[in-house]
């Protein structure tokens, strides 16, 4: 986790202090369940909660013990015993390390997901507000980076809203997928621990029991989770690239907010660069990169191995922290985005009416001209605009073959911008309800 791309609340979820506190809660809740079914004394469970609950677990002390034991969970349990005393012998009854590690990891992922869901809500709010602000701001739509037909800037933002709304649904599904608990003992058979303990711990930690844990929670769940984070990152990049393209000097239809005192270049004082959205493109690459190792973690040996462990120590914090930062940055970009309707219209008219070519094509076919001939007639006039800087409308009006099929009024009517935006309300109703 790089501090430059981290936010404190998400980072705190992955701190050693938080991890050890979750480990304690898992162990203590298990003791409650064991006491309830008569496996350990109720007084022992009470003592574990009382003394362990007040304990300030020392990361340095646990590291010191682990340097000898070479086992992180045993090091923690040894340190816990220093607080609890003799009743600590009842901690971890019938459990295995993965019961603690996997359940804790999923608790952390669930908590991280709740922050990410809140991030998406804020981004959706910003996108909706700006979409309605520019619902009728006409701009050119582009395909292959080339002028296509008119749309509105609000429709562009409505598309992004719909995409992130789908991402919210996906993330909710990912949260449900990952919110499982395993307290099933060695190889997951419950031979040394009653299944009721798992049910109790799951409920206490806000999870549900894993149907078959085989000592580890199956990693197909985590593969899907990190893949969805990658999809969300890709959506961030898509929106970031749109802003980057619109900010190009030759386009300048929108740009990132440039704050007082901000500098764009160490060499060129005039520069206003899209640094935030370029950064988002890079961060999206990183979040996507974590999906592959998560998928490779699925294929563990037999009932368990720990080849996934080192991977998850990295990708769990890094993917969620990075995506949290990226979503917040994207929200800020949209919230403060500078939009230039005048430049949008200037760019729209740069090629003198070419954006209306399809309407003329369709009008010719409806007037009885074959599609092949209609395409030929429209294209030959369009090429004069591309190559000679001619005016598309004037060229069509002067083309005798076109005029043989369409009157001057018919042709002029096809150059109405309002025609292209007449269904914007329909699109907005579909997106926003």
Topology summary:
Elements: H1 8-13, H2 16-36, H3 42-54, H4 59-69, H5 72-84, H6 97-133, E1 138-143, E2 146-152, H7 153-178, E3 180-181, H8 195-204, E4 208-209, H9 220-246, E5 254-255, H10 275-289, H11 291-296, H12 309-336, E6 338-339, H13 341-348, H14 357-366, H15 371-388, H16 392-397, H17 400-405, H18 408-413, H19 424-432
Parallel strand pairs: 3-4
Antiparallel strand pairs: 1-2, 5-6
Q: Determine the mean pLDDT.
A: 95
Shape: elongated
Using the CA coordinates, give the radius of gyration.
30 Å
Measured as a percent range, the helix fraction is 55-70%
Report how far apart the termini are. 39 Å
Number of helices: 19
Beta content:
under 5%
User: Spans with pLDDT under 50 lasting ≥5 residues?
Assistant: none
Keyword list:
single chain; 433 residues; mainly alpha; two-stranded antiparallel sheet; two-stranded parallel sheet; 64% helix
What does this structure look like?
- This protein has 19 helices and six strands.
- By secondary structure, the chain is mainly alpha-helical.
- The strands form three sheets. A two-stranded antiparallel sheet has the order 1-2. A two-stranded parallel sheet has the order 3-4. Strands 5-6 form a two-stranded antiparallel ribbon.
- The mean pLDDT is 95.
Question: Short summary of the structure?
Answer:
The chain has helices at about 10-15, 15-35, 40-55, 60-70, 70-85, 95-135, 155-180, 195-205, 220-245, 275-290, 290-295, 310-335, 340-350, 355-365, 370-390, 390-395, 400-405, 410-415, 425-430, and strands at about 140-145, 145-150, 180, 210, 255, 340. The protein is mainly alpha-helical. The strands form three sheets. It has a two-stranded antiparallel sheet. A two-stranded parallel ribbon has the order 3-4. It has a two-stranded antiparallel sheet with strand order 5-6.
